[in-house]
Amino acid sequence: MDETIRREMLAFLPRLRRFAYGLTGSVHDGDDLLQATCERAIRHIDQWQPGTRLDSWMYRIARNLHLNDLRAKGVRGQHLASIDPVEHGTVDGVRAAEAQMTFEAVRGFVDRLPEEQKTILLLITVEGLSYREVSEMLELPIGTVTSRLARARLALKAFVGGEEPTPTPEPAR
Amino acid sequence: MTQHIDPEFLVAYVDGQLEQSETARVEAALAGDPEARETVRRLRESAELLRSAFNEPLNAPVPARVLEAIHTTSAERAGRSGAWRNPWPVALAASIAMLIVGLGGGLLLVDYRVEQEIARLHAVGQADQQVREAALFQALEKHASGEAVAWRNPDSGKTGEITPVRTFKNRGGRWCREYTAMEALDGDTEVRRAIACRAPEGQWKTRLVLISDS
How far apart are CA B32 and CA A107, in angstroms? Predict the structure, then answer.
């Protein structure tokens, strides 16, 4: 691995960690996934095509490892440990606590999403990838990406706005 | 509530993923549809909340165990693909460089465990170097061609063997010796061939390194 790739990989770690956290629903499992992803990427760096995005390639590895894990375990991630709240000196305690509860609720919502909606929601809305990038990464038609994302986003909006207690599961799973 | 505009379009609009013509069409429709505007606002707000809910890993250091795993894996790799193309402890230098680049890159890796790990790796690398140099001096100064001198650094587990191959005088009249150096760590073996010449003060200075694989 040359220096540029190493540098890029390191710079990308916090974002990959965030994605792994979202996929697994827990910090600890997320870090296991992050570690496994990095090890795999380094061992198989020859399979990465220079000129393509390293981050997309690694997101994809993380997602595949995560799916393998789920298949192996035969269960979905069950619960969610929260990261210790960051201390904000200027925010008063009640508001900070409320925000933390909201964040936890949102993470719980994501955790309950069908896996294929969750991946797309995290990649696009949290990680900031474009629809096209995700469609290429997951080898899905862009229309499928768009509609899965829309389903997750509208459910999220409803959840945050208190319209519905739970997300609508995707039909035909 | 958004009968006039397909909600999928609204989501793509909020994400800036529509074609220009589509964007214009959605904006035109939004102008006359307060309910859709409210949907757009809440889509934006909930997306923002989602990002905030997962943002904490961005402000926390990457755990040392992950960094260590990366360093171990890339060292293994560097070890396999010819670690002697650069000065001696390439795998080590590479991992240290990797960590340092990370630190210099404005990342939040300023975790003292990482710094400790760097210091430890550096110390181990220096110890390897000292043992290796002592063995090299011994071999070149006192051993006949063909006689190997073995060395081992118990801290790193690294072992090596230095064997003088032939002796000659260079154009400047100094004594030089060609030697082979083998090093092994965790089952990975590497061999290089080099020429060292004796300086007037008595040190042996390696002038030329020829790479050969095991």
Answer: 35
